[in-house]
TrEMBL record:
<dbReference type="GO" id="GO:0016787">
    <property type="term" value="F:hydrolase activity"/>
</dbReference>
<feature type="coiled-coil region">
    <location>
        <begin position="188"/>
        <end position="275"/>
    </location>
</feature>
<feature type="domain" description="Peptidoglycan hydrolase PcsB coiled-coil">
    <location>
        <begin position="125"/>
        <end position="198"/>
    </location>
</feature>
<feature type="coiled-coil region">
    <location>
        <begin position="22"/>
        <end position="148"/>
    </location>
</feature>
<dbReference type="Pfam" id="PF07486">
    <property type="entry name" value="Hydrolase_2"/>
</dbReference>
<keyword id="KW-0732">Signal</keyword>
<dbReference type="InterPro" id="IPR057309">
    <property type="entry name" value="PcsB_CC"/>
</dbReference>
<feature type="region of interest" description="Disordered">
    <location>
        <begin position="421"/>
        <end position="472"/>
    </location>
</feature>
<feature type="compositionally biased region" description="Low complexity">
    <location>
        <begin position="426"/>
        <end position="442"/>
    </location>
</feature>
<dbReference type="Pfam" id="PF24568">
    <property type="entry name" value="CC_PcsB"/>
</dbReference>
<feature type="compositionally biased region" description="Acidic residues">
    <location>
        <begin position="445"/>
        <end position="472"/>
    </location>
</feature>
<keyword id="KW-0175">Coiled coil</keyword>
<keyword id="KW-0378">Hydrolase</keyword>
<feature type="domain" description="Cell wall hydrolase SleB">
    <location>
        <begin position="315"/>
        <end position="413"/>
    </location>
</feature>
<dbReference type="InterPro" id="IPR042047">
    <property type="entry name" value="SleB_dom1"/>
</dbReference>
<protein>
    <submittedName>
        <fullName>Cell wall hydrolase</fullName>
    </submittedName>
</protein>
<dbReference type="InterPro" id="IPR011105">
    <property type="entry name" value="Cell_wall_hydrolase_SleB"/>
</dbReference>
């Protein structure tokens, strides 16, 4: 009896210690998970802030690009105005050159006319001089013959003459000299009248040329004024053009800075998403959530789910379609992801088919019947596994995912656990798009698919993978 009591006491003590240890472990696990969730929330907040900065930067880039486009339009318009003004100036300069030629010709003609006037003035002066000289000579003769001598002068000539005949000869000679002088005086007067007439014609021509030159000068001044005015407009336009071009250069510099900021934000977001994925993987490694069960979805949610299945797995087998649908519904049920279908599909940096607009394009056209049926099955609780991630095998190996299960072209896995990375393969592969299976835009590539959009493959695919449906 004593032994039984001792054995009972020992058994009770063992049970008490185990229960106490289990409770302590459970409490410690709860605290650890709570701490991990707190870190996840902090990381999510960091991601949200980065996404906010990214959105603000994108808006700034968009606004700056709009301003740049307007400035570029201004530059184009100002350049056209500048070209038009320069063309106008060239036309004015051409007219000015023509006017300068006409003015030069008019000035040459004026110089020629002025020279002719000078020549006529000289000729007139010479004729007037000869007239005066001839008149003075005639006057002197008359004075000598008549004024000084009077009748005695003639009587002297008569007395000094040897005969009447000699007297008459001398008298006739004197008269002939007087007549010659008078004739010459008349000729000089006629020459002066002719020179005066020529001079009048030349002066009239000079007046016409002078008037013509004045008209040319006025026209030249008018064109020169217009040219200066247009040159002023051109200088203003070119100054504005230069200012707008400087703005363009500044916009380019600002856009480069914003692009660099965007790359930095994308890198930080990628790092934060990678950290969050690792935090979730670490937490999921401690406990496994139950993501099974049905989901009461609206018609809109059913369409979104079917469209995403079609976008990601339209060319895959029916089991492959169920696999993609299972990942989406497992995420809805998981505490690590949004708790709605649309929230999971539209979560930032997750599904490239959504970001590219492919999902919404399929929604607008209507998803095919096979994908609708697959969506209805997973909503009803059907699952091909508890997977939370999927990608192609190439990228699963590239990222070193330690454990995954292949369905068609996709590698499915529950935890983002990686193994030591081997050397990269020599074969060149296309650069990965942004992430749409996990929360890592750089580390997790998109769910690649090689299918055509909006194809209804009917029920023929369902019979091709009965072995796969039950293999998970």
């Amino acid at each position: 009896m004593r032994r039984k009591v001792i054995a009972g006491i020992l058994l009770f003590s063992l049970l008490f210690v185990n229960i106490f240890s289990f409770d302590s472990y459970a409490d410690e696990l709860d605290e650890t998970i709570a701490s991990m969730r707190q870190k996840e929330e902090e990381t999510q907040e960091t991601i949200s802030n980065l996404e906010k900065q990214t959105k603000e930067t994108q808006d700034a880039i968009k606004a700056l690009e709009g301003e740049k486009a307007q400035t570029q339009s201004n530059v184009t318009n100002l350049q056209s105005q500048s070209n038009a003004l320069q063309s106008t100036i060239n036309g004015y300069n051409s007219k000015l050159n023509t006017l300068n030629g006409e003015i030069s010709e008019a000035e040459a003609a004026m110089a020629e006319v002025s020279s002719e006037i000078v020549k006529l003035n000289n000729e007139l002066q010479e004729a007037q001089k000869q007239e005066r000289e001839r008149y003075e000579a005639l006057k002197k003769r008359i004075q000598t013959t008549y004024e000084k001598g009077g009748t005695q002068g003639l009587i002297r000539i008569l007395l000094e003459s040897g005969s009447i005949q000699e007297f008459l000869t001398v008298f006739e000679y004197l008269n002939a000299v007087v007549d010659y002088d008078q004739k010459k005086i008349g000729e000089y007067q006629a020459l002066q009248d002719e020179i005066e007439a020529k001079k009048a014609v030349v002066e009239e021509k000079e007046a016409e040329l002078d008037k013509y030159q004045e008209a040319l000068d006025e026209k030249h001044d008018e064109l020169a004024g217009l040219t200066d005015q247009v040159k002023g407009q051109l200088n203003t336009t070119n100054s504005s053009l230069s200012s707008e071009k400087n703005k363009l250069a500044n916009y380019d510099q600002q856009l480069q800075q914003l692009d660099a900021k965007m790359k930095s934000l994308e890198s930080q977001t990628a790092a934060a998403n990678a950290a969050l994925a690792q935090q979730i993987a670490d937490r999921l490694a401690l406990t496994k959530e139950d993501t099974s069960g049905s989901y009461s979805a609206s018609a809109d949610e059913l369409t979104w789910l079917a469209a995403t299945i079609q976008a990601e797995a339209d060319g895959e087998s029916y089991t492959g379609k169920l696999g993609v649908g299972s990942v989406i519904m497992n995420r809805v049920k998981s505490s690590a992801f949004p708790n709605t279908i649309i929230g999971v599909i539209t979560q930032n940096m997750q599904f490239a088919s959504y970001r590219s607009g492919k999902v919404e394009l399929i929604i607008s056209n209507g998803p095919n019947s096979t994908c609708i049926r697959a969506a209805q099955e997973v909503l009803g609780g059907a699952r091909v596994g508890d997977y939370l991630f999927f990608m192609t095998q190439y990228w699963a190996d590239y990222y070193g995912i330690s454990e995954y299960y292949m369905i068609g072209h996709h590698a499915f896995f529950y935890r983002w656990v990686t193994k030591p990375k081997e050397e990269a393969p020599q074969e060149q592969q296309p650069a990965p798009e942004e992430n749409n299976e996990s929360e890592q835009p750089q580390e997790a590539p998109p769910e690649e698919n090689n299918q055509e959009e909006n194809t209804d493959n009917g029920d023929n695919e369902e019979n091709n993978d009965d072995s796969e449906e039950n293999s998970d």
